[in-house]
Amino acid sequence: MYHDFKLIEGRPVSIQVKDYMKRLMIKGALQPHQKLPSTRELGVLLGVSRNTVIAAYAELADEGRVYALQGKGNYVSEDSAGSAAPSSLSWQLPWKERLSRQALLAEELDLMKRGIRAGKDTISFTSIAPDEKLFDLDHVKQAFLGRMSVEGHVLLNYGYAKGYKPLIQYLMTYMENKGVDVQGKDMLITAGFTEGFDLVLAALQQKHGAVICENPTHHTAIKNLKLHGFDIKGVTMEPDGIHLGELERALEERPYDCAYFVPSYHNPTGIVMSMEKRLALMQLMSRYEIPVIEDGFNEELRYSGAHVPPLIASAGSGNSVIYIGSFSKVLFPGLRVGWVLADRELIDYLESMKRARNIHTSTLDQSLLYQYLHNGNLHKYLKRARAEYKRKYELTLQTCKAFVPYKTLSGDGGLHLFVTFREACSVRELLEACTRQGVIFTLGHHFFTDGRGSNTLRLGFSRVADEDIVRGIRIIGDTAKQLWGLE
Amino acid sequence: MYHDFKLIEGRPVSIQVKDYMKRLMIKGALQPHQKLPSTRELGVLLGVSRNTVIAAYAELADEGRVYALQGKGNYVSEDSAGSAAPSSLSWQLPWKERLSRQALLAEELDLMKRGIRAGKDTISFTSIAPDEKLFDLDHVKQAFLGRMSVEGHVLLNYGYAKGYKPLIQYLMTYMENKGVDVQGKDMLITAGFTEGFDLVLAALQQKHGAVICENPTHHTAIKNLKLHGFDIKGVTMEPDGIHLGELERALEERPYDCAYFVPSYHNPTGIVMSMEKRLALMQLMSRYEIPVIEDGFNEELRYSGAHVPPLIASAGSGNSVIYIGSFSKVLFPGLRVGWVLADRELIDYLESMKRARNIHTSTLDQSLLYQYLHNGNLHKYLKRARAEYKRKYELTLQTCKAFVPYKTLSGDGGLHLFVTFREACSVRELLEACTRQGVIFTLGHHFFTDGRGSNTLRLGFSRVADEDIVRGIRIIGDTAKQLWGLE
Question: I need a surface site. Which of A112, A417, B6, B271 has the fewest CB within 10 A?
Fold first, then answer.
């Protein structure tokens, strides 16, 4: 006994001794009423000071796990033992048979559990998360300490389901500056885009059980739409956004409960919908009275070109657009903060749903983000990030043009490009061949609502080093040419 | 124009000027191709330096909202105007008619929207949140800075749906030290207890559509059970926990999908279930093969008495107990961190559901909490908090005994007491009379599964000053005596 005690760094030693002794009691290695080694003895056995053991024993006594007998030493308490459960209580439940459709489907559709694992040294184009090397940690620390010194006690206690008020105010102005008429609208802070989307889908009555969206579209959105039981109608993408004719025909054919669009840096195609198309799209939505969920994905990552207001701005004083925003891709995904901007009455219901689900979003995340934004750091950061991502974007674009035998290539900015090969080409085969050469990417078909896209792939470049972008894309291109005899 | 510019503190002035000008463009006060004041002029008009205006104009040009004409000055861009929506796009949707049953019910059951607002100087016994004056902010800051310096870049990028690994490891050991056999079990980190509970309920197949629990019980749990459509069977509480005879009769009568119990510092009665009762309870659950959701509520707030292991410890190697823990009430509710400890296969499904709902819990919250715990701060904090809460607990208890004409009074510790008057007494009337005298508390009937409890109330004392505890409870007692002619 006492030979397997190992000190870990940075944790008070007396607590480690206490935990260690507790473990021995629970495992039954120390029995109730057994005498413990003297403090001097245990200090020697564990290689710690006597005072440390004295502190540990005092803590154990305080927790009722040890009692002292005057002049005799310390003993293990009656209640301290592990409660060896009678075997009658240890029954096994076949959990899988007790699970809901939602639980089973969530696991089945969980791409993170199905993806290829990237080995070390693999060049991976699968991520569109920001490059953490760009993070300005000093400003983050500053924001945290600044906010904590203003109202640390308040931040650590319960907050509001609707969100941290200064952040809401900041973001309302932020959205107003994008041209949104905020009269009659309100905002709910969520744990990122995904929570906002999930809440909105749960709040919608399924009168028709169907949603219309772009095809391809954000695979997480497809997953959540399926989990909520919606039929999904995807409408083909053109180089400047959704195919309006096809959209109109679909709208004539059957009713929909809502539409979901990603007008800027559309995931996965990277397309920014033109202003004309945005207005025409909104005309159709208005005519068919379909509420729109707008995914404000990466709107901030404009490398060039004019300011394009979001769909919710085009709706003016109308209340039919639900805008869901997030700084996750642009700033820090580890901070789970997003927002839903929508009709005030709707937000009121969403607030109650949010409260029922998790009380509120982390106040620390919200207040840190608020202070970071308030300090004017976003602008500085975006300048630097945009310059870096733009360089990578252009490198990726040029390298694809030089080496990849694609049919079409899309991406007006953002953190990824979308590649389409000839119909017959199986990108799954290409991925297998590339994986063997240490290069991976995301299969495009995950983004399609109708099983198509087996000839497409998404290339995320945000976290790939320049030389790896060139090397990786050459390998993809060369392999594609070999595989399909293309030139 | 330019007269309503107001500087706010702490935000870079050039950004404030930029935002202000942007707003004028969006409101149409500045029209496309209109000439802007010179930098010197605008500096004078807004009371800022010329260099600040130069920086603001440069930012606006960078965003494509302003263009410069050599030697002539700066002009508003074409695209900069607010997109005044054609009125045809501004249609109004009657949201309430489009909402799901879940959304409507969540709002209806949202007590936060139905509660009485406490005016200034009101003595409020409604909260059982921790007293923020006890928070050790210096240790929190230290934990944050410590973790950021170790792996700040990693913390701010995406984490894992299952949770932050060091925290999971810490908590697994923590639970092992409570006597839990962790073999075959796993852990999911959630945004507090509530999210864990909501996820588990969504994961359960509703074969019978019914849940059995204590009556009264945690009102948030009742709300979530209702939102998930469960029938709720509540079993009467005795002074040492649930009434076993009544429980057994209920189990004989019909099948249940699961049970929900709060064995320690039961909310709202404050009762700690005896060890004998825990074992007998688990025998029954085992016999009827009912999975148990255990709410580890405030287990840490033991003021005296022996260590009582949680139900999941009694189940030994069995996999039928789902333990949901949180430090919210004990430590910092603003950090939304809880955990679900359960069968490994079940956790695997819950992980996919969590990912679909919000990707993962805030890494900042998790890593800060981990570092705080690792540094050994919990023990120090709990010592101080327990001493403080114990004093308040005893004061509340004594004052109730002295002044309140209750029939029974319960609470073995924790942050609240539960008061039951004679059957006929309407606590709602009492609350109305007390509110007029500046004292409020929580109506007990919110905690009942069957509409009973109109003669009960909960007194949360954690955030009430000593003198207010005495003054407030005297008022409650005196008012009750007057109202009901009791002595």
Answer: B6
CA distances from A192 to A197, A327, A342, B196, B361 (A): 9, 8, 16, 18, 10
Task: Kindly report, residue by residue over B173-190, the tens digit of the pLDDT.
Answer: 999 988 899 999 999 999
Whether B82 sits inside 8 A of A313 (CB atoms) is: yes
Contact B365 A364 (CB under 8 A): yes
Complete edge-to-edge strand list for the sheet that includes strand B338-343 = B185-190, B338-343, B321-326, B292-295, B258-261, B210-215, B231-238, B241-242
Q: Are B296 and B307 in contact (CB under 8 A)?
A: no
For strands B231-238 and B241-242, give the pairing.
antiparallel
DSSP code, position B485: T
CB atoms closer than 10 angstroms to residue A307: 18
Domains, chain A: 13-80 (1.10.10.10), 105-133+380-484 (3.90.1150.10), 138-372 (3.40.640.10)
Average pLDDT over residues A162-179: 94
* Interface with B, mutate which of A169, A177, A415 (most B CBs under 10 A): A177
Helices (H), B404-444: 427-436
B3's tokens: 């007269």
Ramachandran angles phi, psi of A66, nearest 5°: -140, 145
| Strands B258-261 and B241-242, bridge-based pairing | unpaired
Q: Of B22, B98, B317, which has the smallest distance from its Cβ to A291's Cβ?
A: B98
Residue with tokens 């791409």: A111
ipTM: 0.94
Q: What is the pLDDT of residue B467?
A: 97
Task: Please indicate whether, in this complex, the C-beta atoms of A83 and B358 are within 8 angstroms of each other.
Answer: no
Residue B116: the pLDDT is 72
Q: What pLDDT, on a 0 to 100 scale, did the predictor assign at position B307? A: 67
Greater pLDDT, B27 or A386: A386
Q: How does pLDDT run across B292-342, given as a tens digit for each residue?
A: 999 997 777 777 666 688 999 999 999 999 999 998 778 899 889 999 999
- Tell me: pLDDT of A482 over 70: yes
pLDDT band for position A410 (cuts 50, 70, 90) = very high
Residue B137 contacts residue A152 (beta carbons within 8 Å): yes
Instruction: Enumerate the residues of chain A whose CB falls inside 8 A of the CB of residue B145.
Output: 141, 145
Query: How many residue contacts between A and B have a Cβ separation below 8 Å?
Result: 403
For testing the chain A interface, which of B30, B137, B157 should be mutated: the one with the most A CBs within 10 Å? B157
In chain B, the residue whose alpha carbon lies closest to the alpha carbon of A10 is B375
